[in-house]
Specification:
Layout: H1 10-26, H2 28-56, H3 62-73, H4 82-109, H5 123-187, H6 197-201, H7 230-233, H8 247-253, H9 259-270, H10 279-308, H11 322-328, H12 331-362, H13 373-384, H14 393-420
Length: 424
Amino acid sequence: MPEGEDDPLAGHSWDIQTSVDRFLYNNEIVLAATSASILSVLAGYPFDSLKTRMQAYRFPSAWVCLTQTYAAEGLAGFYRGVGPVLLSVSAFRSVSFTMYTHTKAFLNQTILPISPDEKLGSLRAYRRIAANAYISGAAGGCVVATLNAPLEFVKIQRQLERLIHTAQLQQAEAAAAARAAAKSLRTAGFGIPPASEATVQSVKPAVPPMAGSVGEVFVGPASAGLAAGDEHAIAGTRGRKPPVHRPDQQRAEFKPGTTIDMIRKIIKKRGVVGLYSGYMPHLLRDGFGTGLYFAFYELFKYSLINYNAGLYSRPSTDPPTAADLAAAEVPLVHMLAGGLGGTVVWLFLFPIDLAKSVIQREALSDNPKYRSTLEFVAKHWKQRGLFGFYHGLTPQLIRSFPVHSLNFLVYEQVTRFCRSRGPK
């Protein structure tokens, strides 16, 4: 450009920069929540898939579940159904964080304001922070649970569809083998009457026992059109065991559908209302759980900031200043608070999530094993006690700390960046 001439794009470039800054500042929560959710889902979905499989079927261990899933479905099996989840979680987490932020601000100004005599790090301060965070988080969680319930149910069905398909094949083979055996006996002149359907279903399937299952045979799920009553007809079973991987059969015959196909299948079988199967445990998990999630996060963050600012090592007459507290809120605080909060909350939520997964696994069955969540809880407690409600917890705990650390680290850092683009 010749010397002395004005840059014709200078003003235009400035306008663009101003517009971008205004957009970032005005949409900080949405952008931060979306960024955090996308990264969290991509990092944590394989663990979530393992957790669902272990809750719905009695794998001997997380390692057996992982190796059998990989052998049968490859790496893609761990991400089955991730597409809609990636989109929905981004949108719903934005709603959740937006409601949480605005509700918390409202409570701070009205119902739960900071008391003049509240001391930094006092029990009164912890109670106020926990109550504010819990109420705000639970409000957002209930709204999101209602919006997200259909997609959550579809996700569960997609994660389990290969196991359900394999179970159907093996049940069909077992029934055919029973009919053939009865026919051969009649042909041999033993005078046995033709096998009824009940007789066929009372025969144990000729499936080899799983490794580590103490000789128990596989009993397929009742989901997705499986013959009713199969599990009840087989004596000695204690729960639904995962189907045995058979590469010669499964890879050739299984053709995974799409999420749209699964939605159509559910609506055809149960109507639109069927998309809300398992809604009550889902609402309890997300309402109660989101409240606890934010409460634990805020409490851990508050404690770590106070510790970094030297609150617990200073004399009471010299508390940290606002500048000290701001400087103490470093990224590591967000990572630790998010990881600890996300891990601890699952110790409370896992039994609820287990009930939800089992009820949703049974939802498409013509003759489900459990008619309600309460029936499942009562029977499961009687058969397996408290620890039975934590089957499949290991992959969830392995997933929780890094995923939730990443979630809040990204959320807080993107929020800070967007706020820095606002008016100075």
